[in-house]
Amino acid sequence: MRNLKVLKYSAMAMFSSAFISMNSCSIDVIPQDRYVEENIWADPSTIELYINGMYAEVKKFQFGLFPNLGYDNAMDALADGMKFTSNTPGNGTVNILISNANQFSPASVGLNYWGSGYDRIRRVNEFIGGLKTKSQLSDEDKVRYEAEARFIRAYAYFWLAKLHGSVIIFNDIEQYATKDNPRSSEEAVYDFIIEDLDFAAANLPNTNKSGRAGKGAAYALQSRAALFAGSIAKNDKKQFNSDPLTGINQAKANAYFTKSAQAAQATIDLGLYELDANFQSIFTNKNTKEAILRVDFVAPTVTHQYDLGYAPPKDALGNTLVYGVPTAELVDEFEMKDGSKFSWDNPAHAAAPYENREPRFYASILYNGATWKGRTINTSIADVNEGFIPFGQQGDPKRTVTGYYARKMLDPNNTTFVVNKSTQSWIELRFAEVYLNLAEAKAQLGEFAAASTALTALREKRGLPAASLPNLAKAMEVIEHERTVELAFEGHRFWDLRRWRKAHIELNGKKMTGHKPTPDGAGFTYEVVPADASDRSFTGKLYYLPIPEGEVQVNLGLTQIQGW
């Protein structure tokens, strides 16, 4: 097979290669070990490979990764639902970041996607430019490929916007002729993302190949992005940053919420997706109709190591890594099966804390007494291999520091993951999120009956009673709870707290906790224990992370986010 690495080169790199060939008297010979630009645009199969390769951008965030942190579930560990077990640099870097807001600076951004994101955006713009000027495809195929490319561009820009708010917009390859480019306003960035997704939704087919965006993916991502923009417009109010380019006009909040609701409803109206009655199977069933956009894996060549990172120790004693474990705060969010709230202050609940809980609890959490792979999980101090160990007692304990293990997304049938790794899919856009987006957007618009209908549709599929959202305060309380439970370990919670402007309240000046089980006769007692060595630290300044220092130095048109 020919070497495909040249597909990643910029147009300038391709030109340079051609120039070198000319000087070596080989201008009449097309190199046989690579694709040159003329071959790319003349061969439809190569164009297909190129656009397919651009979906690698989604893989950068699979299983809750953040690219420069490099560990599954890192984004949940930045929030309050998961606790990373290590306190050493590497798999303990998240704990370092959450314990000291001063770890973030222009010299060390902490969450750094700038270079990676803009590299992908340039590749997309090169592709669109070549598609329009050099491709011999039909007009119909050109539009379809442009729609896919603009979906990927919107995806990359959305990550940049979530981090920095105000960033540079590149919508054409010709812009790169200018070295120095300024930031656009946060509002303009979100409008650009929504515009790209409007084009994608209008021109993508109703269905597409596995792992590729179709109309539903464009609508679902637009619903997510517009909800984020509306939340910032409503909640930010320039409280946390004085930069004139950050923040979104509060008067535009309802327009974004309306766009989010319309996109969510359009996803539903396609009739392609269904809420799955078996919550547990969603994350291991490659045929689930909840998946709108997913990343697939096939052994032995395309695999991942989620099970190795999160399976409890006795699944492969001495090998599992246990990067993170659920917090008590998350565990306590799961309701009873009748829809009532769980409470340790309720004597019946406290006596049997893991009985009669809602189905999502058993699909998401491995608790003391849970049945798993033919054994009973014992997270008490009596089990030296799988039981509780206080956070910080060992640098990298590879066992629970909260009394729990994560169950969701583990493959219960995979007993050879140390050697053969894992193949369950990562679902980037899930139908349940669309219902949650719709409920929230409708609530923000004051349409509480419609919000209740959307949330009830989801809860009933999860075996829970209907939701009542009589006013905005109650609606947001219930929706936040539902998002916390439904989307646990899927990388949403940290970003939800940021867009609601609640992160400086929920992730600052407090410790997350665990439940330490201790044998007591025929049963156990449970003690609330801290899972953090020190209070967490999130200041309002972190709602807009700094642009990497080196980028500001080389781009004379680029100014740093004010406050940094």
From TrEMBL:
Signal peptide interval: 1-26
Alphabetized InterPro entries for the sequence: SusD-like_N (IPR033985), SusD_RagB_dom (IPR012944), TPR-like_helical_dom_sf (IPR011990)
Gene3D superfamilies: 1.25.40.390
Record keywords: Cell outer membrane, Membrane, Signal
Pfam families, A to Z: SusD-like_3, SusD_RagB
UniProt KW Signal keyword: yes
Sequence ranges assigned to domain SusD-like N-terminal in this UniProt record: 99-226
Sequence ranges assigned to domain RagB/SusD in this UniProt record: 304-564
UniProt subcellular location: Cell outer membrane
Family: Belongs to the SusD family.
Protein name per the record: RagB/SusD family nutrient uptake outer membrane protein
UniProt organism field: Sphingobacterium hotanense
